[in-house]
Amino acid sequence: FQVKSENRETIWNTEEVPEGSEFDDTWDPREQPEYQILFKQCVGTEDVFFGMSRKDPSTACCEDMVIKIKLPETKYSDITLDIHDKVLDLRTPQKKLLLHLPYPVDSKNGKARFLSEEETLEVTLRPSRDFDFINF
């Protein structure tokens, strides 16, 4: 079995290159900021008291993913944020974060806000996953 490359000058086939490696920048000297990934659920009384829905506390039942990134001594205007389906790319003059996300997300409909008192960027993303017996 041999895979033919569409371009004879290429070294790697597209199947050999891991997904998201085009964002990897190992030679960048900026340090990685501290970050947290939190998951949010919309829970009602029917979920808490009666257990009428099939929701459980696992991340599979969460509606939103919140990423909190500590950016000390950073102004809002210095932040460059780029969201892809599986990668969050954040750059400032002092910090760089290339985060491979645990779930594919809806990259077009996210929210970000900078809390200047806490020096934290809060990014809220909605995971994009197929409907299953839990997420219907």
Automatic annotation (TrEMBL):
InterPro entries linked: DNAAF6, PIH1D1/2/3_CS-like
Biological processes annotated in GO: axonemal dynein complex assembly; flagellated sperm motility
One GO CC term on file: cytoplasm
Segments forming domain PIH1D1/2/3 CS-like: 32-125
Gene Ontology MF term list: dynein intermediate chain binding; protein-folding chaperone binding
Membrane-spanning intervals of the chain: none
Annotated family: Belongs to the PIH1 family.
Name used for this protein in its record: Protein PIH1D3
Organism: Opisthocomus hoazin (Hoatzin)
